[in-house]
Amino acid sequence: MNLRKPAFSALFTCLLAAGFSGIASAASPNDPATLGKLRDAAMQSDWSYQRLEDMTDLVGPRLSGSAGDAAAVEQVAAAMRALGAKVTLQPVKVPHWVRGEEKGELVDYKGRPANITQRVVLTALGGSGATPASGLVAPIVRVRDFDELQARAAEVKGAIVLFDVVFDQGMADRGLAGNAYGQGSRYRSTGPARAAELGAVAALVRSVGGADYRLPHTGATNMKDGQRIPAAAVTAEDAMLIGRLLKRGPVKLKLTLTPQILPDADSFNVIADLPGSEKPEEVVIVSGHLDSWDLGTGAHDDATGVTASMGVLHTIKQLGLQPRRTIRMVAWANEENGLRGGNAYFQANKDKLEKQYAAIESDGGAGRTFGVQAGIRREAEKYFAPLQKALLPIGAGVLNRRDSASGADVHQLEAGGVPSFMPYVDTSAYFDYHHTPADTFDKVDPLNMKRHVAVLTALTWFLANTDDPIGRAPDQK
Amino acid sequence: MNLRKPAFSALFTCLLAAGFSGIASAASPNDPATLGKLRDAAMQSDWSYQRLEDMTDLVGPRLSGSAGDAAAVEQVAAAMRALGAKVTLQPVKVPHWVRGEEKGELVDYKGRPANITQRVVLTALGGSGATPASGLVAPIVRVRDFDELQARAAEVKGAIVLFDVVFDQGMADRGLAGNAYGQGSRYRSTGPARAAELGAVAALVRSVGGADYRLPHTGATNMKDGQRIPAAAVTAEDAMLIGRLLKRGPVKLKLTLTPQILPDADSFNVIADLPGSEKPEEVVIVSGHLDSWDLGTGAHDDATGVTASMGVLHTIKQLGLQPRRTIRMVAWANEENGLRGGNAYFQANKDKLEKQYAAIESDGGAGRTFGVQAGIRREAEKYFAPLQKALLPIGAGVLNRRDSASGADVHQLEAGGVPSFMPYVDTSAYFDYHHTPADTFDKVDPLNMKRHVAVLTALTWFLANTDDPIGRAPDQK
């Protein structure tokens, strides 16, 4: 072979370049082979699903301040220590609200036969005040929105207000479940306080969710101490019943709610680190929230988020890999009724947010996962092609760029510039179970759970190792 | 026109025959025009749907012996009197079982963290005995069938038996919902007594039904006084939880059930007659049962059956028609936990069963109605063609002949030779709601209700007027 001929020389250059490129690729932690191995390992493991079973079956409900909350902290910390992660418990003072008796009875309405009262299925909202132990009786004023509330202010005084907002399942089916939820949940969050300001003695909201099995959906409501009135969610069926009876004439409800607000309790953000090899001070968070409501076992909301995040560390450890940046699994305290965990972390890190390289939170359940929602700037989008390519074979290759993609616990980080991510999940059925007694282990499909872990693992690994300038979060509105 | 020509003569004969046939048809109460008018009047009326709303919204649950039961008797009787029907209240002594507190907690299992117990969602079965007010604690023995119960008799003594039989929704979807129900309900009916015989201290059954919203499905269980132990239905989710925990090790349940069995109470079969013009002593029954379980408002089970049967009389009255035989609407007392109403009627009529011309009961809810199930002999099938033809336009032209087609309340009549009928209804979703808190008015589709009334009306009218020898019921096995 005569190497002095230009043609051969060019060929050699090409081969050299190709060879160099090949070597560089093999050396990069984000090469297709590594991402593929992580994806496949996650798809072949039921480790996270087993942790999900442990959390929901052995601990069960994990309302902030409860014994379940404390037990879950221990359980997650122990599992992470067993993997060899560096575990830190970050103390967080959490609200300690305890559900009491809850009972509703329609005691007067037009056409009521003698001795008949109609039971209303309801559940207290987190933060609800209490009625007298013997209950209170008042007429119901049903409103469809805040305008109607204001317009009927005179009737509201001394009454029980029912915010009767129908969950838009059609919107959820069109991929906008979060928006449908938001339409209803704003009445749950702020309605009782606004009713209290007008002199209402209690407030009801129609359950925010899509199923028709007479399930009450609880959730938080925001009332300051001066405004605190008894507040409950009624089932869709009971809201409809009240609506029909109100067409006949006035309706009176006897409401008994005896929740208690105890002094703030001790809880913890469970933080488990896989230290980075090159930039250990730069952190990529992968997380879910450890607390849940008390009615079900918080399987989709959010044991899946926590145990899938735990599975990211498991998968990486299983393959003997070490990331360049530190990968930090966080099981947040008190997402549901206070966000105290996310707030404590933000407060502790707000002066060095540049070290928070990226933050992922999974808090939409483990339905079918299509890909990733990315709170990144438009110019960063192109760098995620290798990740998308690695996730394509499991139907999760979508990158849905948004100006904001933070779960509630990392929202302050995102507002501070930390690029945030969440799995892109089919949530059309999520609000059927969310915050109800029916959010249980059996609702989680094992294959969907594996896919969820695979997406979180590939995403976390990718962020922890990328050389690309993905930059900071888009400006938040 | 030369009429002597044979061709013309034949034509004339044909026309004569056709004309005669036409006249005969117009004169018969079962001619297509009359059946069509009844069908169309029912399809254009929401009278039954309004009565359904009255019954479920104003009265609500109607458990035998309760105030709701009494109020429903009054409500139906008043509505029937208002139509001009001849109303009789047939006294029936009914069981008076009252639900008390009901609570389940898994208080010990392998892997249980300190201070944690797991709530089990359950509801007492009708006829259940009571635990001590402070509850009882015992290990759970989970069995899949009676063979396993016998094989594990030694473990059963002193234990709480869980009959964990999965509802076969696939079977229900294939049109065999009743069979799927029967596979589970036999464990509910007889399981607790059999467990008691082996020394069990309580019994649980997995709820018999298809939905996955952590709904307990109540129902009757048959225990003699000596066998009476506490017995409850757990939700499918809780049965699965117990099954998973039992794979880890022994599981103990604290069970608190405080139902009471009070002295038998007074109730009534509400009987409303449209007397026949030609054979008033011959009776065609159209019926449903007035009592319901106490958790929901018994909309599908069986307010639809009662109010659709009431609608038969309303439709016929609306058109100013009088049947040849007497049409008798019956709202049966105490189908759910005793069958005392059906039994009282049988006892009062057993010596002249030949006067009970036919008996219809609707007790499968008001899903989409396809036609009629007919407990008639094969040779009688052909006579129903005019009825089928009249119901064809509303998609209800099916005649499903069976050896038995009696609802529970008319079963003794059928066994005594009375041809029995029920609407042929899509029941694939019926057992999602049946015997649960979610069996409420909103679950009934108004159009399906109209179709249901139309089928019952046409069928009742047809039977009350037919000249055909439809004969007696097939021999019962």
Layout of SSEs?
2 copies of one chain form a homodimer.
Chain A: H1 6-27, H2 32-43, H3 47-59, H4 67-82, E1 86-98, E2 102-109, E3 118-120, E4 122-124, E5 136-143, H5 146-151, H6 153-156, E6 160-163, H7 169-197, E7 202-206, E8 231-234, H8 236-248, E9 251-257, E10 260-274, E11 279-289, H9 299-318, E12 325-332, H10 340-349, E13 356-361, E14 369-375, H11 385-391, E15 398-401, H12 411-415, E16 420-425, H13 430-433, H14 446-465
Parallel strand pairs in A: 5-6, 6-7, 7-8, 11-12, 11-13, 13-16, 14-15
Antiparallel strand pairs in A: 1-10, 2-3, 2-9, 4-8, 5-9, 10-12, 14-16
In short:
Chains A, B: It comes from Pseudoduganella guangdongensis. The structure is a homodimer of 477-residue chains. Chain A is an alpha/beta fold.
Describe the structure.
- 2 copies of one chain form a homodimer.
- With 477 residues, the first copy, chain A, is an alpha/beta fold.
- Chain A folds into 2 domains: 31-96 and 263-465, Zn peptidases (Aminopeptidase), CATH 3.40.630.10; 100-258, 3-Layer(bba) Sandwich (Glucose Oxidase, domain 1).
- Helices cover 38% and strands 23% of the residues of chain A.
- Chain A has 14 helices and 16 strands.
- Chain A has helices spanning 6-27, 32-43, 47-59, 67-82, 146-151, 153-156, 169-197, 236-248, 299-318, 340-349, 385-391, 411-415, 430-433, 446-465; strands at 86-98, 102-109, 118-120, 122-124, 136-143, 160-163, 202-206, 231-234, 251-257, 260-274, 279-289, 325-332, 356-361, 369-375, 398-401, 420-425.
- In chain A, the strands form 2 sheets. In chain A, strands 1-10-12-11-13-16-14-15 form an 8-stranded mixed sheet, with helices on both faces. In chain A, strands 3-2-9-5-6-7-8-4 form an 8-stranded mixed sheet.
- In chain A, strand 11 (279-289), helix 9 (299-318) and strand 12 (325-332) form a beta-alpha-beta unit.
- The radius of gyration of chain A is 26 Å and the shape is elongated.
- The N and C termini of chain A lie far apart (65 Å).
- Residues 1-26 of chain A have low confidence and may be disordered.
- Chains A and B meet through helix 3, helix 4 and helix 8 of A and helix 3, helix 4 and helix 8 of B.
- Chains A, B: Keywords: Carboxypeptidase, Endoplasmic reticulum, Glycoprotein, Golgi apparatus, Hydrolase, Lysosome, Metal-binding, Metalloprotease, Protease, Secreted, Signal, Zinc, Zymogen.
- Chains A, B: It holds the Pfam family Peptidase_M28.
- Chains A, B: One of its GO terms (molecular function) is carboxypeptidase activity.
- Chains A, B: InterPro entries: CPQ, Peptidase_M28.
- Chains A, B: Its main location: endoplasmic reticulum.
